[in-house]
Structure formats: structure tokens, C-alpha cells
Amino acid sequence: MKSLKQELSDRWLLYQFTSDDIWEKFDAWKWSFYCGFDPTADSLHLWNFIGFMVWVHLMRRGNKYIALTGWATGMIWDPGWKDAERSFLSEESLLNNQKMISSQITSILKNLESFTQKTFSYDFVNNKDFYEWMGYLDFLREVWKYITVNVMMSKDTVKKRIEDPDKSISYTEFSYMLLQGYDFCKLFKDDGVTLQIWWQDQWWNLVTGTELIRKKYDWDSFALTWPLITDSSGKKFGKSEWNAMFLSKEKTTPYFIYQYFMNTSDEDLSKYMKMLTLIETEEIDEIVSSHMEKPEERKAQKLLAYKVVEIIHWEWEAKLSEKISEFMFWNSDKLEILKSFSEEELISFKKSMWGFEYSWENLFETIVKSSLENSNSNARNSVKSWAIFINEEKIEDFNTDVSSLFIDDKFLLLRKWKKNFRIIIK
């Protein structure tokens, strides 16, 4: 196995770090590190998946991951690079989001254990336990005493809001870095955590924690970040035409994630495969080199898309996403693909394809309710124009009995022109 520093560097997963001592410790000993998430939504995003892979490379070397969900920090929001303060979430929403995110993290880590054939060491912590019974004066004595306002004012995320006359920052958001710093300090004191990792834009929040630990306990701790990723066109990784891509299949289907990576440019293939899969980097170089001989076949995109979905949503969803993509975009017998689906696969396919359960009376109503047209008259015109197909047969008769066309009494395939499909399940 490569050294940790070399592994992260080769995989585009290393941006900056506080000390070379990180590599000696986390390569050779079983230390604890943490990465926190504020539960401001009930699902992590696709860009959080980059962090998952950093954790994995640390855990594969025997280190323990502490997953901190930030109830307290989520109560006030991170000013980050936002232009204005955002609305608070209710405590009930934060706790529900924490539960959902913790379940999501557990599922992916369990799956990654099966990939790596290793047992990972990890635990969950809620920083609500740190602050619920801490008074304001206690916080001043425990934290504020050690961090100067001068230092806080110099940090980029604060300066940006203060120096712009059209923007401002509240005292609440200004205090966020102190909470994150104390999180690290508390985990160091109680659990021996010596490393915090996050995106590069969290650097100043991370080093607030290392500074607090040094001043309170005269001990060296560490911070490490991975880079903010953009694709070759400059678009932020994890953003699509559907906006944010979630790791929750209820919010973003596995197929949409699969298709997102199927659209990866050839220029980004090597970087994404190294960051987001466990394929050895040398093998990735060979895969991409071979791919470039016939890029139109998109073999590397298929492998990347499959591997990412396989890790996030397990093998079953990866195979189904592959089938859906083949159905949608490759020359194949579409009905034979659908006939090969199990009942469970048909239901998942229906969700991915904006499909519907059948409950209508006639052809026109079926076309309208499936959203291929917005009125019966437009549906009639589409049939008249020979634009409507059912089970890949052109429909010309206005009186077609839709209910009699279900294949195996399970489904029918509705299509308008070449690529606008709907699956109707009985």
C-alpha cells in the first residue's frame, strides 16, 4: 500500500495540511480523526462523497473515523462564502436530519467495508452533548479566552462579509468558528482525536481548533483539507441541470447519479476515477489511455458511473442504473430489457423514468396523465402525427385499448418521438 500522503496526492484528494507529522502518525499508528456535518438538510450531497473517499484512505490504514453531526453548529449556520445570513432550522428538523445523515453514512461505510475487505473503526458523535448544558459564561472561559477577535477578523470568510458595505455578518455567525474549534478541542480531550479534515474552504475553522488545543493543552493537533473540485468547464463538482445531486435515492435516484458520471468529459475522467473509486491509480491510467483510443464507446465513463453508484447505493442499484442507461441511450432491444426486469426493478425503473401506475380510461388520457402532452387535443395531434408509440409500435388508431397492451400483464412502454419515454405499470 502506498504511503497515505502519496495516495491522497495521486488521487487529487490533498490540498493543504498543517504538518508533515500527520503522515508519520496516520500511516503507522491507529489514531482518531474527525469530519463533521451540520444537519441542515436530510441528505448529504454528491460533493460530500469526495470526503467519504478521504475517510476511507485513512481508515484503510487502521485509523478511527469520528462522524460528528453538528446540532449546535447547525443551529446557527456556517457563514462560509455566503453573502447573507440564512434562516434558522427548528431543533426537530435538525435532529431528524442528523438521524437521516447518520444512517446514510453508515450504509455507505458498510458497503465500503465489503469492497475493501476491511473492518472500519468509526463512531458517531453529536455536538449537542457538548453545549446543551454549557452556560454562556462557561463558553467565554473555555473558548473565547483563547481566541482573539483580531485573529477571527482576519479570516477570509469573515473579512469578505465585513469589508463589503452591502453585506454584514451577525455575531451569531461570527461565533461559528469558535464552536467548530471547540468541537475539535472537546473530541481531543475526550476521545484523543488529533486530526480534523474538510474542504479547503474550511481551513480557517479547522486551524481555530488546532490553535485552541495548543493553547489549552499545549499539544499539537492537525488539520487537512481536500480541494474544491470543478470540472473542465469550470462547473462545481456535484452540480447538474437538476441542481444539487443528493446521496439520498429519494431525492436523487441512483440512475441520475449514474447518468451524471456518464456525462463526464474525457478531460475529467482520470481525476474523477482517482478521487471517487478504489481502483489503483496505475490501473486508472491504463483504463483512460485505452478509453482514448475509442472515446465514442464511453467505456471509462461507464466504469466510473458504475463504480460510484455501486459504492453509494450498492451493487443492485449500479446494475439497474446500467440497464436503464443502456435502455435510454444505446442501441438495444428496449422491450427485452424491460422483460428481464424483476418486479422490484420495474418499480425502481418507473421512479427513474418518471413512470406512472395505470389508472386511466383511454389513449388520450394515458398520454396526458403521463405528461407526454398537456391536453387531450395535443395528444390527438401527436397520434395524428405518428409521434406516439406503445411497446415500440406506432399508434394510429385513436380508439386503441391501452389496457389490453400490457406486456406480461405488468407494464407498457409509452414513447413520443425518439427519446421521450414513459413506463406505465399496471
Your description of this structure?
The protein has three domains: 4-226, HUPs (Rossmann fold), CATH 3.40.50; 239-330, Orthogonal Bundle (Tyrosyl-Transfer RNA Synthetase), CATH 1.10.240; 352-425, Roll (Structural Genomics Hypothetical 15.5 Kd Protein In mrcA-pckA Intergenic Region, Chain A). The protein is elongated, with a radius of gyration of 26 Å. It has helices at 4-10, 21-28, 48-59, 71-76, 91-116, 128-131, 136-142, 149-154, 156-163, 171-174, 176-191, 203-217, 254-262, 269-276, 281-291, 299-329, 334-339, 343-352, 363-369, 376-384; strands at 16-17, 32-37, 64-69, 121-126, 193-199, 222-226, 239-240, 243-244, 356-357, 388-390, 393-394, 411-416, 420-425. The mean pLDDT is 90. It is α/β, with parallel strands linked by helices and 426 residues long. It contains 20 helices and 13 strands. A six-stranded mixed β-sheet has the order 1-6-5-2-3-4, sandwiched between helices. The protein has a five-stranded mixed β-sheet with strand order 9-13-12-10-11, covered by helices on one side. It has a two-stranded antiparallel sheet with strand order 7-8. It is 49% helix and 13% strand.
